[in-house]
Amino acid sequence: MGEVLLKAQGICKAYSGITVLDHVELTVRKGEVHALLGENGAGKSTLMKILTGIVKQDEGSIIYRGEPLWIHHPQEIQKYGIGIVYQEFNLLPDLTVAENIFIGREPESRFRGFINDRKMNRQAEEILEQLHCRMDPTQKVSTLSVAQQQMVEIAKALSYQCELLIMDEPTAALTEHEIQVLFSIIRQLREEGVAIIYISHRMSDLDAIVDTVSVLRDGHFIAKHRYKPELKDQLIKEMVGRDLVQKYPPRPAYTRGECTLRVQDLCTHKRLKHISFEAYQGEILGIAGLMGAGRTELARALFGADPIEKGEIQLYGKKQVIHSPSQAIRMGFGYVTEDRKRDGLMLEQSLKENILLSSYERFSRLGMIQDGMADKEADSFIEMLRIRAAGRSQRVGRLSGGNQQKAVIAKWLCRRSRVLLLDEPTRGIDVGAKYEIYEWMYRLAEDGATILMISSELPEILGMSDRILVMSGGRITAELDAGEADQNKILKYAMSQ
Amino acid sequence: MQKMCILAGLVILCCLFSVITDNFLTAKNIMNIALQTSICAIVSIGMTYVIGGGGIDLSVGSVAAFCGMTGALLMKAGFPIWLSVTAAVMIGGLLGILNGFVIAVMGIAPFIATLGMNSVIRGTVYVMTDGVPVTGLPKGFGKIGGGRIGGWLPYAVIIMAVIAVIMAVILKKSHFGRNIFAVGSNEQTAYLSGVKVIHTKIGMYMTCGILSAIAGIILTSRLVTAAPTAGDAYETDAIAATVIGGASLAGGSGSISGTMIGAFIMGVLRNGLNLVGLNYFWQQIAIGFVIIIAVYIDVVRGKMKK
Questions:
Q1: Domain final residue pick, A218, A240, A262
Q2: Model-level ipTM above the cut of 0.85
Q3: pLDDT given at position A291
Q4: Domain boundary among A413, A428, A457
Q5: Which of B175, B194, B196 sits opposite A367 (nearest CB)?
Q6: B191, A305: Cβ pair inside 8 Å?
Q7: Helical (H) or strand (E) element with B168
Q8: CB of B86 within 8 Å of any CB in chain A?
Q9: Which domain holds residue A209?
Q10: What digits encode the pLDDT tens for the residues A427-466?
Q11: Is residue A387 within 8 Å of A409, Cβ to Cβ?
Q12: pTM of the full predicted structure?
């Protein structure tokens, strides 16, 4: 066990009167992978922001390499040898891979102030090679996939000699293979004595790399353990503060109702080829597939957001032509998008505005909104979904991921949508919030809604679906009953052409 | 909170001028300020809609000139005043729809689209009149911008107040107003939540066009002359008033009350500096600084909040 590299004690932080961190401590030693666990909103991200100088703590001390750590500007962390891989990408889309990796400290040419492009590209290539990542350093970041962008983020953090590397949900967007590569890099860094703070919601990541875990809950420090696989149940209990043995809520008795949605031979210019399937009242239809299989494109086509080349959509036995989302919504569709920050929420607006956005017609008389009614409705959804916020007028951008996702779901509950397209409904949110969202999905299905759930997490697909469609290359390659499906089967069809 | 800040700024400004000049704090001068501000305020209200929706309209000045001019030409051609004014306002709406179409349907960035439209419309005004002002308008028409109820309350100020109240209610309470802020906050989210983005955008530019036309009519009436150069640089004043009033150029925020305060800050400043004896050139410089200081205070407050 290495010596102590970082010791944070009694860290407190409050935002506009709401306590986010309350006397939190964290001790990280050289050469260890230290997992920081906690639900969304537990205070992990804030703690990392304090360590990297983005925000200042109200109270408490941080000792780093035996001296107090005073960071005045986020860029100074490089001087201290602290690197961070953010959960949200901080890349500049119009610059190249190499430019992004070396931004702010590009190798100079013989003339001061000018960049030696060739040297920069070569160095970038070397780092990427270390990551077993075949990528052209002169490629623009905007042309990369999400997983590739994540690798660039990691490369950026590795490009200067780190002593402390912070990784916030690094595996969320990666494929299994890329995750394994990342793990081997993490192990190699650990060998070299680098300390790694690792934040992840994937419990399966822990077994592979983690030495020590610290658990936060509601801004409090709960416990620190030497990690052992047997601890998992206890860790979950510590994170959520209650027993949560099952990851999925008990499934209510499922009776397939009438056919609500029938899609026949649907094709789009964007990837979809001859899609045909049916979905029923009260059913949760899982849609599995690898990245780029066309799952999001399917949701967008059904929702009227992408033009349909040919094919037919029937809703409740009636043929429908859907040209726009507003039309689809009137027919009863609701769409929880894959990336809530990009196209699911208005981050600068209040919780109320976000929940009511699609339902104002219901609260309007002669085009004027009845505020009393609207407020009451917003409050009822905040309470019903247990959205943790200071109130209906709090800005959504300030909420944690899980609460943001609940706000998106509240929008469609408020609209009383009957056919819900959920694209990665639990991505990047914590165990507790996940469980609550699962409960809601069951409640809606029981209530007669039809749910199409796109997910990249196979356990989620298997745990929640009544029936499963597997997609690959824009086609449906298999339709499986929940009983006959398993991970291997789904993967086989997902990779078939 | 933020509104309180700029309102305080306006009050301080008024106090300052009351102390250093004798004539500032008189009923007559206050009415003068209101009258002088009315035109800028009406244009700024339209601008608040557009900026709230994440757009910008650089063509407000030439739309005002165009509509003032067409109204004047119609009157000269013998049409009754009410009909000429109504037609001019409708033309303003149509020009706004055209702006909205170029932006929302053709997909051209608002800055560029309205910059182009500004040039096209202004050029058309010159072509229509050969650059010569239209004079000799009917006496009755002059009342809109020059007349006063009971000899002291200008019609133009009443028009401004009525418009401000109506537009504030629409922006804050109506479905249309909510949609504007939704589009301004996050267009993709708005689209995928069922907001008709194209309708909303065309609607907000139309609103701005109509209000610019009304401003153009009031201006023409006040001078009893339609000048092809009328409304020059209105866009600067309108954007300034909107931004001082607390709107962000990124869209998704802004209020009519804030904008009104913003317009009056500039009106009071112009008037007060006039009384002090500072000429127009120096006023330009002073107003420029006020805009920067006002927005800077807002930036600093935003940082402190974080």
A1: A240
A2: yes
A3: 73
A4: A413
A5: B175
A6: yes
A7: helix B155-173
A8: no
A9: 4-240
A10: 878 778 889 999 999 999 999 999 999 998 888 899 999 9
A11: no
A12: 0.80
